[in-house]
Write a structure and sequence with these properties.
The complex is a heterodimer of chains A (459) and B (334). Chain A is α+β, with helices and mostly antiparallel strands and 459 residues long. In chain A, 26% of the residues lie in helices and 23% in strands. In chain A, the strands form 5 sheets. In chain A, strands 12, 15, 16, 17, 18, 19, 20 and 21 form an 8-stranded mixed sheet that branches. In chain A, strands 3-6-8-1-9 form a 5-stranded antiparallel sheet, covered by helices on one side. A 4-stranded antiparallel sheet of chain A has the order 5-4-2-7, with no helix packed on it. By secondary structure, chain B is an alpha/beta fold. The two termini of chain B are 33 Å apart.
C-alpha cells in the first residue's frame, strides 16, 4: 500500500515549509517514527518522522524547495499492517486503481523481505531555536509535528494527562495496556516508577522494535544511549555542537574564580522564600540575587558586556544588558534570555527567570526567548559542581557560574572562626575582549556586591 | 448470606418495612398511615396487615383512589404536627399527587419561612422486572429529584430499609421513600433489633474494588454485586456503591471512589436521559475530570415510554447481571 506523505504544519500559523534535507533517499527502508526528512519554517526546524514502516518509493520535492503545508512530498510503500498516521493519506496508485498489479512489484517484494532496521529512532521533535527533544518532560510538545502528536495522544484520558504531567512522563513513550493499546493511568504510574523524576522518557513502544544490538550501523538515541551503538544527532544537538566549536575555536578562553561569602544573601532568601512562593507561585532561589549582582557589575565593567567583531576587527559594547540563563534539559541545553535584566528588581528577575525555566521545561520557549543575550549566567552549582570552566556563548565576552553553596569554617576579620555559606563563582572570558585586569576586577566587584547584599534588603 | 444473631433477625424487605412501620406506630402516637387498601386489606403486599386492628381506623386510614388527596391530606397533617406516612399503592399512580409533593410538601418550609415544616413520608413500591407492564413497573425518582426541598430514598437491603425508613419518619421535611417491589421478598438480610437510623444522603460501599466504580441503587445494586463478583472470579476488581439516597446525593462517597478507581459506571433501571446517572456524571465531570481514565458510562433503560408486558420486551428494557458484567469488563479493560 502506498502512503503519501504531505508537508506537515509545523506550528499554528505556519502555512508552508521548506524541505531542508532528506535523511533518506528513494529506495531506502524507513521505520515508523524514524526521522526521514528535516523541514524548516520561519519558526522552527523539525525532523519529520515517518508515519509508517516501509520503503521510500519516491521523493517528490527537492531539498531547499518550499511548499505549502499539505503538499505531497514523498511516497512510501508501506510494509506490514502498520497504520498510517493522521498525517499520511493512503491513496491508491493509478495502477492499483485500474486493477493492474502494482508497478513496483519487485520493490514491494523486496520491502517485504527487508531486514528490519535495527534500533529505533525516538521521534525527534527539534525546534532549532527553542528547546525541544523527545526527552523533554511534556505532554504537549510544540505543534511542530502536531498531527503526529494528535494521533499519538488520541485516547489519552484526563487522568493520564494529569499524571503524565505530574510525573514528567511523555505518554508517547509509554506502552499502553488498555483497549487497543491505550495508555492507562496505571501505565503512566508504572512508567513513573521506572523513570527518575524529571528525566523524562521511556522509549516509544507503539511499534514493536528489535532490540538494538551493539555493532556498527546500529543506532540508539540520546535519551537512551546503548553501548556499542551510534546516535544520530538531532538538529538541536548538531547546533549545540557547532556553537560550542565556534566559540572554542574563535574565542580564546581564559578562566578565573572567586570565592564568595553568600551567608547574608542566603539568610535574606531564606527569610523571603516562603512568602515569595506563596505570593508569586515562583520558587525563590539564589539565582535572581546573583543575576542582580551580575548586572550591577556589568554596569561597572561594560567591557564584560561586549562582543568581539571580526569585521574591523572591533569590539562592540552592548547597550542593553540581556542575561542568558543556561538551562540543562535531559537531551539538550537551552539559554533563554532575560531582556533588560539591569532594569529589573530582584523580584522582577526571579519572576522572569521562573517563567523562562518553566517554559523551557515544558518546551514552550519561543525564538524570541533565546535571542539577544549579551552575557550568560550558568547555575552549575545546582548539580553540586564546586568549580567549572564553561564555554562562552558565542558572540559574548563572558559567562559566569554559580557553584554549589557549602558551609565552611571561615576565618573572620577579627580572627574568629565562623561557619559561613560559601560559593565559588567562575568566569570564562573572551581574551580578545578583556584581559585579566578587567576580568578580575569584574569578579571582585561581583563578590563585593554579593557579600554586601542583605540580609535585610528588599526584593 | 444473612445470619440472625441474638440482636438481629433475618427479614426480607417487606418484613423490614412492616417491622419498622409497626415500631414507629408503637413508639409515636403522631405517626399514622394513610393510603389505598392499607387498612382492612393490609396493603397489597400485606405490609400493614392487621395494623388497623391494633391501631384503629384513625391511624390506619383507608383512602379513596385519589392520590392527590392522599398526599394533600398528609401535607396538612404534617404541617399541623402529625407524622403521616402516605402510601401510594404503586409508584405508577403517583402522578396525580405530583403537585401536592412538588408544589406543596417540598415548598412548605421555604414558603412559610420555616414557620411550617412538612415532616411526612411518601412510601411507594416502584420498579420492574415483575411482569408489571406499563402501570406497575415505573421508576419515578428522576421525576422528583430535580426538586429542592424533597429527599428521595431508595434502599435495597433490609437493614438499610429499616434504618432509612426510621430516618425518613424522623425527618422534619418530606421524604419520598421508594421500595423496589422485586426486592420485596427476593432480598433477605440481617436486620438489627431496636430503633436505629441510617442518615439520609449517605451512600454505602457494598463491595470494595480498585479498577472501576459502579454506582447504582435499588434492585440493580444486587445485580451489580452479582456481576462484580463474577468479575472478581475473572481477576478484576470492581467497587459497588449503593447510593441508598438519590437526593441528597453522597457526592463525597462517589468522588472518593472515582478518585481511587478512575473509572465510573452508573447503572440504573430508570431510563437514561436526564436520569440520576446524568446528575452523577455531570458532578463527577465537574469535580474529578482529571482523575478520570475513561469516559463515564451510564447503563440505563432505553428511552421508550414504558416497560412492555411481553417477556422479551421486559428483558430488553431491564438490565441483567450478565449485561452489567459485560459493561464492567469493557470498562476495566479500557
Amino acid at each position: 500500500m502506498a502512503t503519501t506523505i504531505t508537508m506537515p504544519q509545523l506550528g499554528e500559523t505556519v502555512t508552508e515549509g521548506t524541505v531542508e534535507r532528506w535523511l533518506k533517499k528513494a529506495g531506502d527502508p524507513v521505520e515508523k517514527y524514524e526521522a526521514f526528512l528535516e523541514v524548516s519554517t520561519d519558526k522552527v526546524n523539525s525532523e519529520v518522522p515517518s508515519p509508517v514502516t516501509g520503503k521510500i518509493r519516491e521523493l517528490l520535492v527537492q531539498e531547499g524547495t518550499t511548499v505549502a503545508t499539505g503538499t505531497p512530498i514523498a511516497i512510501i510503500d508501506e510494509v506490514g499492517a502498520a497504520k498510517a498516521s493522521a498525517q499520511a493519506k493512503t491513496s491508491e496508485t493509478p495502477a492499483e486503481k485500474s486493477g493492474e498489479p502494482p508497478k513496483s512489484r519487485d520493490a514491494m517484494a523486496e520491502s517485504a523481505n527487508m531486514e528490519p532496521v535495527p534500533g529505533f529512532n525516538i521521534p525527534q521533535l527539534d525546534v532549532k531555536s527553542a528547546a525541544a527533544s523527545s526527552g523533554t518532560p511534556t505532554m504537549f510538545p510544540p505543534k511542530s509535528n502536531g498531527q503526529r502528536e494528535e494521533a499519538a495522544l488520541r485516547g489519552v484520558s484526563p487522568a493520564v494527562r494529569r499524571l503524565a504531567r505530574e510525573h514528567h512522563i511523555d505518554v508517547r513513550g509509554v506502552r499502553g495496556s488498555g483497549a487497543s493499546g491505550r495508555v492507562t493511568a496505571d501505565d503512566v504510574l508504572a512508567a513513573a516508577k521506572l523513570t527518575p523524576s524529571g528525566a523524562a522518557t521511556a522509549a516509544p513502544t507503539e511499534a514493536p522494535r528489535a532490540p538494538s544490538k551493539p555493532g556498527p550501523g546500529n543506532t540508539s538515541t540520546y535519551a537512551d544511549p546503548i553501548p556499542g551503538t551510534t546516535i544520530h544527532l538531532s538538529s538541536m544537538r548538531r547546533i549545540i555542537a557547532e556553537r560550542m566549536i565556534e566559540s572554542r575555536k574563535t574565542a580564546p578562553h581564559a578562566w578565573s574564580m572567586v570565592e564568595v561569602d553568600v551567608t547574608n544573601v542566603w539568610e535574606w532568601r531564606k527569610r523571603e522564600k516562603d512568602r515569595f512562593e506563596r505570593d508569586t507561585g515562583v520558587k525563590l532561589t539564589l539565582l535572581p540575587f546573583f543575576i542582580r549582582a551580575v548586572v550591577e557589575s556589568l554596569a561597572a565593567f561594560p567591557l564584560m558586556n561586549s562582543k568581539f567583531l571580526t569585521e574591523g576587527p572591533s569590539i562592540y559594547v552592548e547597550k542593553d544588558v540581556n542575561i542568558g540563563i543556561a538551562i540543562g534539559l535531559p537531551a539538550n541545553l537551552v539559554v533563554p534570555v532575560i531582556k533588560h535584566a539591569d532594569k529589573l528588581s530582584i523580584k522582577g528577575i526571579a519572576l522572569a527567570a521562573g517563567d523562562l525555566i518553566e517554559r523551557a521545561r515544558k518546551n514552550k520557549l519561543t525564538t524570541d526567548d533565546l535571542k539577544k543575550g549579551t552575557f550568560t549566567v550558568n547555575n552549575t552549582g545546582a548539580n553540586g559542581s564546586f568549580a567549572s570552566a564553561p564555554i562562552i556563548n558565542a558572540g559574548q565576552a563572558g559567562i559566569v557560574t554559580m557553584e554549589t553553596v557549602v558551609r565552611r569554617p571561615m576565618v573572620q576579620d577579627d580572627d574568629s572562626i565562623a561557619i559561613r555559606y560559601m560559593m565559588n563563582s567562575c568566569l570564562s572570558l573572551d581574551h580578545r575582549v578583556v584581559d585579566g585586569y578587567v576580568a578580575s576586577g569584574f569578579l571582585a566587584d561581583l563578590k563585593k556586591r554579593l557579600e554586601s547584599m542583605g540580609p535585610r534588603g528588599a526584593l | 448470606m444473612a445470619v440472625a444473631t441474638s440482636s438481629s433477625q433475618v427479614l426480607n424487605n417487606v418484613e423490614a418495612v412492616r417491622a419498622t412501620l409497626y415500631e414507629a406506630l408503637k413508639n409515636d402516637d403522631k405517626v399514622l398511615i394513610l393510603g389505598e387498601d392499607v387498612g382492612n386489606r393490609g396493603n397489597v403486599f400485606l405490609i400493614t396487615k392487621d395494623f388497623v386492628k391494633e391501631f384503629g381506623t384513625e391511624r390506619i386510614i383507608d383512602t379513596p383512589i385519589a392520590e392527590a388527596s392522599i398526599v394533600g391530606i398528609a401535607v396538612g397533617m404534617a404541617m399541623e404536627g402529625l407524622r403521616p406516612i402516605a402510601e401510594i399503592q404503586f409508584a405508577d399512580f403517583i402522578y396525580p399527587s405530583f403537585n401536592q409533593i412538588v408544589g406543596e410538601a417540598a415548598k412548605t418550609r421555604y414558603r412559610s419561612n420555616g414557620e411550617y415544616t412538612c415532616p411526612m413520608v411518601i412510601r411507594t413500591p416502584y420498579g420492574g422486572g415483575v411482569r408489571g407492564a406499563l402501570s406497575h413497573s415505573v421508576s419515578v425518582e428522576a421525576l422528583f429529584y430535580h426538586v429542592p426541598g424533597l429527599k428521595i430514598v431508595v434502599p435495597s437491603f433490609p437493614a438499610d430499609v429499616k434504618g432509612l425508613l426510621n430516618a425518613a419518619i424522623d425527618d422534619p421535611d418530606p421524604v419520598l421513600f421508594l421500595e423496589h417491589k422485586k426486592t420485596y421478598r427476593l432480598i433477605k438480610g440481617e436486620v438489627p433489633d431496636g430503633h436505629y437510623v441510617i442518615p439520609i444522603g449517605k451512600a454505602d460501599v457494598k463491595k470494595e474494588g480498585s479498577q472501576l466504580t459502579v454506582v447504582s441503587y435499588g434492585l440493580y445494586v444486587h445485580w451489580a454485586l452479582e456481576a462484580a463478583n463474577q468479575l472478581e472470579s475473572e481477576g478484576m476488581s470492581v467497587e459497588v456503591i449503593d447510593l441508598r439516597s438519590v437526593r441528597p446525593m453522597d457526592r463525597t462517597a462517589i468522588l472518593q471512589s472515582v478518585r481511587k478507581t478512575r473509572k465510573l459506571l452508573i447503572i440504573h433501571e430508570d431510563n437514561k436521559f436526564g436520569g440520576i446517572g446524568a446528575e452523577i456524571s455531570a458532578m463527577v465531570a465537574e469535580e474529578a475530570l482529571f482523575d478520570l481514565d475513561a469516559p463515564i458510562r451510564r447503563l440505563a433503560a432505553p428511552d421508550v415510554p414504558a416497560m412492555g408486558y411481553a417477556m422479551p420486551l421486559e428483558e430488553a428494557y431491564m438490565s441483567s447481571p450478565a449485561k452489567m458484567a459485560d459493561a464492567m469488563r469493557e470498562m476495566v479493560k479500557f
